[in-house]
Write a sequence for this structure.
């Protein structure tokens, strides 16, 4: 299958777009100026059900929707476009609106480490054992999710980009930090890069023979957006061979696959891709945020986890949506998130209960909403660090005052204490 991308400039060439009204097409043009937009022929032809596109989760996942912008922001952009405003005017307004949408949540820009006084802009080191690497060639995706919290990277605001070329610095940093066992390639989507490029990175890392490095993780949406990456792409076999090489060198390879909806697992191509990856010895773990309009349905999650296990994958994380971009459109309260999680979790068997969540990737760490309960007559949230900036926080339940409207950790107030333990 030949990859064909559709962008804001070209999406009207998609044959199925003729099913949309003029107004719906205009909405895509308006919202697409602000939020990232890119689809491709696989998503359009094989995943979206065009007979019911208005409610189709993959359509909502990839095509901008009117309500993803506030009325104020929508009207401003719509008027500019209608009045025939110039490209620079539209770009300027889009950037201003983006700045109102909290483009860098959870202090992402503050996690840049240093080595010998030099800032390593393509690296993040937040958790003791895990280092994140943003290879330059992996800062895009085969399609864009409308909820993406990394959207500033796709919009050309350069100072918000993290990227680096020097694998040498990655290796040096791993050596200087022997507590790091896991190296996570992330993006964007690192599996967008050519196999040759990825092989160069891996060869350098394997040749360095870093004793503390045990596991390579790759965060990717390719199984959902372009499974041909592992089947019929020109360099698919080369990529699988690199995976095999990682295993042959005694390292674990864990593919962290983003699946947001069970419909993404319905095609022959994805089933074959999963088989091909597993045959290399790699393990596939799955993760997704919980999003209103997209996947706020416990039964769907239960079926999705079940299907993942049946295909040979390991359900791993359910995340709570970050406070960025179209967050109001997608937002689910912490209470609803917990209810959806446990309703789904309670209907699957033990092999699916490897999944953890619902979890907020917040500034101090990954915080799980473990439950809502009453202690001494006070209704509280029970919270738990799955990952923390400080390992001593991990696994210690802590409490916040119950708040029916709370969407994120920042909305919560400590219960039975003046401060949360991580604030001390
Ligand atoms: C935390 C995280 C990982 C790695 O998960 P571990 O808990 O360290 O195993 C991978 N991808 C994303 C998006 C994460 O947030
Ligand atoms: S695949 Fe990941 S990085 Fe790419 S648009 Fe979707 S959420 Fe963002």
């Amino acid at each position: 299958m030949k990859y064909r991308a559709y962008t804001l400039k070209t999406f009207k060439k998609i044959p199925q777009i003729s099913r949309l009204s003029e107004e719906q097409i205009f909405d895509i043009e308006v919202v697409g100026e602000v939020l990232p937009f890119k689809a491709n022929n696989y998503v359009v032809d094989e995943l979206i059900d065009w007979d019911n596109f208005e409610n189709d989760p993959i359509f909502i996942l990839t095509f901008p929707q009117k309500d993803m912008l506030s009325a104020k922001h929508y009207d401003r952009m719509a008027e500019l476009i209608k009045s025939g405003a110039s490209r620079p005017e539209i770009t300027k307004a889009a950037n201003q609106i983006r700045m109102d949408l909290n483009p860098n949540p959870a202090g992402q820009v503050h996690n840049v480490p240093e080595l010998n006084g030099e800032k390593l802009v393509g690296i993040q080191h937040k958790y003791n054992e895990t280092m994140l690497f943003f290879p330059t060639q992996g800062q895009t995706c085969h399609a864009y999710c409308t909820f993406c919290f990394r959207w500033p990277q796709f919009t050309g605001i350069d100072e918000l980009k993290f990227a680096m070329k020097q694998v040498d610095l990655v290796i040096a940093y791993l050596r200087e930090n022997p507590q790091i066992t896991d190296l996570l390639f992330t993006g964007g989507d690192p599996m967008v890069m050519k196999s040759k490029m990825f092989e160069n990175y891996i060869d350098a890392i394997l040749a360095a023979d870093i004793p503390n490095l045990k596991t390579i993780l790759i965060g990717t949406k390719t199984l959902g957006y372009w499974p041909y990456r592992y089947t019929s792409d020109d360099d698919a076999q080369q990529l699988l061979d690199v995976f095999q090489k990682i295993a042959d060198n005694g390292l674990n390879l864990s593919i962290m696959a983003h699946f947001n909806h069970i419909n993404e697992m319905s095609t022959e191509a994805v089933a074959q891709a999963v088989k091909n990856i597993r045959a290399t010895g790699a393990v596939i773990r799955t993760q997704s945020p919980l999003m209103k309009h997209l996947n706020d349905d416990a039964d769907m999650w239960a079926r999705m986890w079940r299907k993942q296990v049946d295909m040979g994958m390991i359900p791993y994380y359910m995340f709570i949506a970050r406070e960025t971009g179209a967050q109001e459109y997608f937002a689910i309260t912490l209470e609803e998130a917990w209810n959806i999680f446990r309703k789904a979790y309670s209907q699957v068997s033990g092999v699916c209960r490897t999944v953890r969540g619902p979890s907020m990737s917040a500034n101090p760490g990954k915080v799980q909403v473990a439950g809502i309960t009453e202690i001494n007559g006070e209704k509280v949230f029970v919270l738990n660090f799955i990952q923390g900036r400080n390992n001593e926080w991990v696994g210690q339940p802590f409490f916040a005052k119950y708040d029916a409207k709370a969407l994120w950790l920042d909305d919560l107030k400590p219960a039975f204490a003046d401060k949360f333990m991580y604030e001390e």
Residues 195-208 form the longest helix (14 residues). Residues 371 and 382 are 5 Å apart (CA to CA).
